[in-house]
Amino acid sequence: AAGMFLRLLSDIQWRAAHPKWRRMTGSQRSTSTTAEPHPLSLPAQAQVVICGGGIMGTSVAYHLSKMGFKDIVLLEQGRLAAGTTRFCAGIVSTARPVSIELKMAHYSNKLYQQLEQETGVQTGYMKTGSISLAQTQDRLISLKRIASSLNVMGIPCEIISPKKVSQLHPLINIHDLVGAMYVPEDALVSSANVSLALATAASRNGVQIHERTSVSHVTIQKGRVTGVETDRGRIQCEYFVNCAGQWAYELGHSGEEPVHIPVHACEHFYLLTHPLQEPLSNSLPTIVDPDGRIYIRNWQGGILSGGFEKNPKPLFTEGRNQLEIQNLQEDWDHFGPLLSALLRRMPGLEALQIMQLVNCPESFTPDMRCIMGESPTARGYFVLAGMNSAGISYGGGAGKYLAEWIVNGYPSENVWPLDLKRFGTLQSSRTFLRHRVMEVMPLMYDLKVPRWDFQTGRQLRTSPLYDRLDAQGARWMEKHGFERVKYFVPPGSDLLDLDHSKTFYKPDWFDIVGAEVKCCKEAVCVIDMSSFTKFEISSTGDQALENLQYLFSNDLDVPVGHVVHTGMLNEKGGYENDCSIARLSKRSFFMISPTDQQVHCWAWLKNRLPDDSNLVLEDVTWKYTALNLIGPRAVDVLSELSYAPMTAEHFPSLFCKEMSVGYANGIRVMSITHTGEPGFVLYIPIEYALHVYNEVMNMGQKYGIRNAGYYALRSLRIEKFFAFWGQDLDAFTTPMECGREFQVKLDKGMEFLGQDVLLEQKQNGVYKRFTMFILEDHDTDMDLWPWWGEPIFRNGRYVGKTTSSAYSYTLERHVCLGFVHHFDEQTGEELVVTTDFINQGEYEIDIAGQRFQAKAKLYPFSSLFAQRRRKDDVELSGYQRE
Amino acid sequence: FYLTPPQVNSILKANEYSFKVPEFDGKNVSSILGFDSNQLPANAPIEDRRSAATCLQTRGMLLGVFDGHAGCACAQAVSERLFYYIAVSLLPHETLLEIENAVESGRALLPILQWHKHPNDYFSKEASKLYFNSLRTYWQELIDLNSGETTDVREALINAFKRLDNDISLEAQVGDPNSFLNYLVLRVAFSGSTACVAHVDGVDLHVANTGDSRAMLGVQEEDGSWSAVNLSYDHNAQNEHEVERVKMEHPKSEEKSLVKQDRLLGLLMPFRAFGDVKFKWSIELQKRVVESGPDQLNDNEYTKFIPPNYYTPPYLTAEPEVIHHKLRPQDKFLVLATDGLWETMHRQDVARIVGEYLTGVHHQQPIAVGGYKVTLGQMHGLLTERRARISSVFEDQNAATHLIRHAVGNNEFGTVDHERLSKMLSLPEELARMYRDDITIIVVQFNSHVIGAYQNEE
Question: Which residues form the Rhodanese domain (chain A) (predicted)?
Answer without folding.
Answer: 48-91
